[in-house]
TrEMBL record, chain A:
Record keywords: Oxidoreductase, Pyruvate, Thiamine pyrophosphate
Cofactor: thiamine diphosphate
Source species: Nonomuraea cavernae
Region feature (Disordered): 322-341
Molecular-function GO term, any one: pyruvate dehydrogenase (acetyl-transferring) activity
Single GO BP term: pyruvate decarboxylation to acetyl-CoA
Entry function: The pyruvate dehydrogenase complex catalyzes the overall conversion of pyruvate to acetyl-CoA and CO(2).
Domain Dehydrogenase E1 component, residue spans: 17-313
Descriptive protein name: Pyruvate dehydrogenase E1 component subunit alpha
Annotated EC: 1.2.4.1
EC top class named in words: oxidoreductase
TrEMBL record, chain B:
SUPFAM superfamilies to which the protein is assigned, alphabetical: Thiamin diphosphate-binding fold (THDP-binding) (SSF52518), TK C-terminal domain-like (SSF52922)
Protein name: Transketolase-like pyrimidine-binding domain-containing protein
Lineage: Bacteria, Bacillati, Actinomycetota, Actinomycetes, Streptosporangiales
UniProt-recorded Gene Ontology molecular function terms: magnesium ion binding; oxidoreductase activity
Domain spans labelled Transketolase-like pyrimidine-binding: 6-181
Keyword line: Oxidoreductase, Thiamine pyrophosphate
Length: 341, 325
């Protein structure tokens, strides 16, 4: 039977596949980091997979995504090849950013994936501008900007929420509220912790969503993007989620208890979806095994590819600082400068 | 104003108008560029001609609208973003440095940012410390940016179009004292890659740009009365610097005074001085001299402000000193 060869593709299956790809990819990244194949800052998305999977489920291939430094998951589900992401983390020339970006700067312009931004809140204005360009050029696209609860304290969020609402731009603000801005709890950095309510204060349609439930996220994102496409202006989803791993590879996690983390792990979005699918008979054991096998093969291939991929030649260090196009020219001025009056 | 002449302000406005007529991807965005006509009246009348979509007033949100300009450039537009003054550009410095200047390299060549950012710079108008900065030298520190400083009406008219053709971000610094200056501006683009020799001489190289050019030329006129003939170089492009023109001049005059409205420490003048020492040390007959802004926040009172920023008399005095050594 056909389904023996390829895992099934109902909505739940698609969400599960997306989440598993992120989870297994990042678990491999941890091993590779320990093996010193990957270096620098690396921020893991483990625990938050339902957000990327659910939001991106609602997007069409033409839509645009601006992301954060915790973006492996967004990139993977938007179709950036695992080989290109892994090779980038290896610092190889075959990486999507030719080894110049690393974990925090995954880009793939052919898939509308505009990074990969290590400045908290720094991607928000780019998303507003991309949406403005779509408006000018009559393109029916939605630009999704992922950012965290920490970015809600940055001025750029407030400037951009106002600007996008003022100009009714087709932007989906996808706030990944994982409860901590690095190591500072939400309530310790925000006087008002109802983030959706604050976004609504700018005239942006906003509501909170259970970010540990991929289906709930997918439904909310579908509703939001439909409304945006219908011309209702920017929307904001507060996706309440939790990061199971440390902020980065250098984080001793002094700011939260193990018990709290364990409590949240009981809400694991992958476990939850698997349990629901099994309960309804949607996911026979051999289907899950097949899916795991396919995902493992994809990651094995990405690692093998990255291992053998060549490094960018050092001679090309300064390539891409400025464009290779010839410098703009014109007549050379010869006139004497006029004295300032 | 005599026949055939225009002002720096009008030249800039004509350049914007021409660009918007020629290329529908070009639009102007910034604080008060529309209904107000621009803080310095550069965009006066453009709203009426092009409408509010293409002459777009923004909230006072420098990071958002400069970043939106970057995003719009990524999305295929050719934005001209006006920041009212360089002082406010600090609120957008994150977007300019961390995104505009960096995206091409950080993305491995995938993302071009064909954006032009214009802003007023400089002191001399009794606007006190927070409205008198000359920070173009800071921006000239950043790889990935092209930095232009039009000092003439001709450059005010001609630099914008080629800047818009550059696939990478270009920052144009317009010295606030120049807007009322009049001169002749031929239509058509000018070079935006090199410096220009504004006056030829054999005894000293005076190097300046933007708001200091008029002073350098006045100093050269005064020196000519004493029998001292100065080369006057208008840098025009602060990044990348045109080393060749500088070194060619130094090779002829063997003496240099650099005029820079930035503070001396870590300034553009320091960079130029270092390059001359690196590339033309054995051509020098005297130490390189600099006339910079005193290392104080620019004061309000006229006499204090005049004492703080480069003046013709200081350029003349520095030149005499170099020639005496």
């Amino acid at each position: 039977m056909a389904r023996k060869n390829k895992a099934r593709t109902t909505l739940n299956h698609e969400l599960l596949r997306k989440m598993l790809r992120i989870r297994r990819f990042e678990e491999r990244c941890v091993e590779l980091y320990s093996a010193e194949k990957i270096r620098g800052f690396m921020h893991l998305y483990i625990g938050e997979e339902a957000v990327a999977a659910g939001v991106c489920q609602a997007l069409s291939p033409d839509d645009t995504v601006v992301s954060t430094y915790r973006e492996h998951g967004h990139a993977l589900v938007r179709g950036v090849p695992a080989t290109a992401i892994m090779a980038e983390m290896y610092g190889k020339a075959a990486g999507c950013s030719r080894g110049r970006g690393g974990s925090m700067h995954i880009f793939d312009v052919t898939r509308g994936f505009y990074g990969g931004n290590a400045i908290v809140g720094g991607g928000l204005p780019l998303a507003v501008g991309l949406a403005l360009a779509d408006r000018f050029q009559g393109r029916d696209r939605v630009t999704v900007c992922f950012f965290g609860d920490g970015a809600m304290a940055e001025g750029e969020f407030h400037e951009c929420a106002n600007l996008a609402a003022l100009w009714r731009l087709p932007v989906l603000f996808a706030c990944e509220n994982n409860q901590y801005a690095m190591g500072t709890a939400l309530a310790k950095s925000h006087a008002m912790t109802d983030l959706a309510l604050r976004a609504a204060g700018y005239g942006v349609t906003a509501w909170p969503v259970d970010g540990m439930d991929a289906l709930a996220v997918a439904e909310a994102a579908a509703r939001a993007t439909e409304s945006i496409r219908a011309g209702a202006g920017p929307h904001f989803l507060e996706l309440r989620t939790y990061r199971f791993r440390a902020h980065s590879m250098y984080d001793p996690e002094r700011y939260r208890s193990k018990a709290e983390v364990e409590q949240w792990k009981k809400c694991d979005p992958i476990d939850a979806l698997i349990a629901r699918m099994k309960a309804t008979g949607e996911l026979p054991d051999d289907d899950l095994a097949l899916l795991e096998k396919e995902v493992a093969a994809e990651i094995d291939q990405a690692v093998a590819f990255s291992e053998q991929a060549p490094l960018e030649p050092v001679e090309d260090l300064a390539t891409f600082v400025c464009s290779p196009a010839p410098p703009p020219s014109g007549t050379t001025p010869v006139s004497r400068a006029e004295a300032a009056s | 104003m005599t026949e055939g002449t225009t002002t720096y302000r009008e030249a800039m406005r004509e350049a914007i108008r021409e660009a918007m007529r020629r290329d529908e991807r070009v639009f102007l965005m910034g604080e008060d560029v529309g209904a107000y006509g621009g803080c310095f009246a550069v965009s006066l009348g453009l709203l009426e001609e092009f409408g509010p979509e293409r002459v777009r007033d923004t909230p006072l949100s420098e990071a958002a609208f400069v970043g939106a300009g970057i995003g719009a450039a990524l999305g295929g537009m050719r934005p001209i973003v006006e920041i009212m003054t360089v002082n406010f550009s600090l609120l957008a410095l994150d977007q300019i440095l961390n995104n505009a200047a960096t995206l091409l390299h950080m993305s491995g060549g995938q993302l071009n940012v064909p954006l032009v950012i214009r802003m007023t710079t400089g002191a001399g108008r009794q606007l006190a410390a927070q409205h008198s900065h000359s920070l173009e030298g800071w921006y000239a520190h950043i790889p990935g940016l092209r930095i232009l400083a039009p000092a003439t009406v001709e450059d005010a008219r001609g630099m914008l179009w080629p800047a818009l053709q550059d696939p990478d971000p270009v920052l144009i610094f317009e010295h606030g004292s120049l807007y009322n200056m009049s001169g002749v501006a031929r239509p058509g683009p000018v070079d935006i890659t090199g410096a220009a020799l504004r006056r030829s001489g054999t005894d000293i190289s005076l190097i300046g740009y933007g708001g200091t050019m008029g002073k350098a030329l006045s100093a050269a006129d005064a020196l000519a009365g004493e029998g001292i003939e100065a080369d006057v170089i208008d840098l025009r492009v602060l990044r990348p610097l045109d080393d060749a023109t500088i070194m060619e001049s130094v090779g002829r005059t063997h003496r240099v005074v650099i005029v820079d409205e930035g503070w001396r420490s870590g300034s553009l003048s320091a960079e130029i001085g270092a390059r001359i020492v690196e590339q033309a040390f054995y051509q020098l007959d005297a130490p390189v001299a600099r006339v910079c802004t005193a290392e104080v926040p620019i004061p309000y009172a006229r006499h204090l402000e005049e004492a703080a920023i480069p003046q013709v008399s200081a350029i003349v005095a520095a030149t005499r000193e170099v020639l005496a050594s």
